[in-house]
Amino acid sequence: MHEAALFLHILGAFILFAGVAVDAIGVEVARRRRKPAEIAALLRVARAGVPLVAIGALSGLAFGLWFVDLSGRSLTEAWIALTLVLYLAAVVLGVLGGQRARGARLLATRLAYEREASGDLRRLLDDRVARSLNFLAAVAVVAILALMIWKPGE
Questions:
Q1: pTM score, whole prediction
Q2: Among the CATH numbers 1.10.260, 1.20.120, 3.40.50, 1.10.10, which is that of 2-150?
Q3: How does pLDDT run across 76-112, given as a tens digit for each residue?
Q4: Helices 78-110 & 36-47 angle (0-180, nearest 10)
């Protein structure tokens, strides 16, 4: 069971990272486009990463907790506790940062027949707060990976 829990936990992590990559790349490429139809299409592709993020985050957490239990470890070990805090931070930051991309996708879909993106759409795509929140969420996910690999204090 130990190996199964570890395998499923790592699989969840791969799915999470795949979803983050699909979403981040789609949003960043959309930011570089001018035509609302192209922006809308790219943001729809980016949106495909969201279910992967959710599946990966939930399965990674569930199987990670199972793995901790099977390993006889404690959630109070510093690196495990820090990982859980970073997990929560990544989820909250990602949800908050993703709201602007959702608004941009909906607006771009409505503006798809116009030649240039409106000022409102550009503001949503270039929103510094949303971009910062998403960046911090990604940093938290990378930090979680680092903690899982190096397990400081072990």
A1: 0.86
A2: 1.20.120
A3: 999 999 999 999 999 999 999 888 888 888 888 888 8
A4: 150
- Among 124, 142, 131, which Cα is nearest to 93's? 131
Closest CA relative to residue 101, chosen from 149, 143, 44 = 44
Amino acid (1-letter code) at residue 19: G
| Residues 23/55, Cβ–Cβ less than 8 Å | no
Task: Tell me how far CA of residue 122 lies from CA of 67, 100, 129, in angstroms.
Answer: 44, 11, 14
Pick from 32, 56, 30, 55: nearest CA to 44: 30
Cβ-contact 50, 18 below 8 angstroms: no
Reading the block at residue 38, the tokens are 């192209």
Q: How far apart are CA 24 and CA 60, in angstroms?
A: 20
72 Ramachandran zone, left/alpha/beta (phi>0; psi -120 to 50): left
Q: What is the rounded distance in angstroms from the CA atom of residue 119 to the CA atom of residue 99?
A: 18
Fill in the DSSP letter of residue 33. -
